[in-house]
Known about the structure:
The protein is α+β, with helices and mostly antiparallel strands. The protein is 48% helix and 16% strand. The protein contains twelve helices and ten strands. Helix 1 packs across helix 2. The longest helix has 27 residues.
Amino acid sequence: MSEVSVTMAAERLGVNASRVRSLLSSGRLAGRRVGSVWLVDSSDVERRRAATRGVKGRPLSARVTWTSAALFDGLGTDWLSSAERSRLSARWQTSGGAAQVCRWWMQSRATVTRYRIAPDDIAELLRFEGVVAGGISAASHYGTGLGHSAEAEIYASTATAKRLVDEFFLLADPRGNLTVHEVTADTHWHCRTARIVEGVQVAPRLIVAADLLDSDDTRSRSAGAALLTDVLSSHRERRGQLVAS
């Protein structure tokens, strides 16, 4: 197996080194640790490059990513001017609903770490204060048909993530059954844009679609692509109705 450094992998992928380390920690990029240093599987780097080849434009900032998600779900975005809303909508229309564009643009929404959690603790964790269900844990709320009884995916602030590690005895594991997206911004976008469903805070559809598209599971990726198409289509229809009125 040919391996490269984190710096070289970052250069090939067009991202910063911290993004590569996040992908390695979450198991979404193959590699291994030698002491404190990561060595990255070069063939996996090339696979990710191929998946985003031809994608144009910089990745969206965390603020713009979460604002997009709120806008597309019809949530309040009073921090945006009408001109900003129009520009944001127009940019997303240029994506054509392509899954690889969504993955590229939304990669800055949070940093990712995987942990091992006891399956019996998942229900309690999803109701923990400050936790927002994403990906596989939110998919069923949006009619994807995906289940999540033995695994979970969440968004949490840095402080909340630390509390979860302590209270649920979480063990870091690149192949673990708990994916934690750590939102480092003080604005707590994940909580500001969440909706409550059956006592659980759930992330907006666009965020969930991006999570599913990042999955290694074929069925989850297909569900993410379908959800992304639905999000963008419903937004176009809503904009058309506003223009017509």
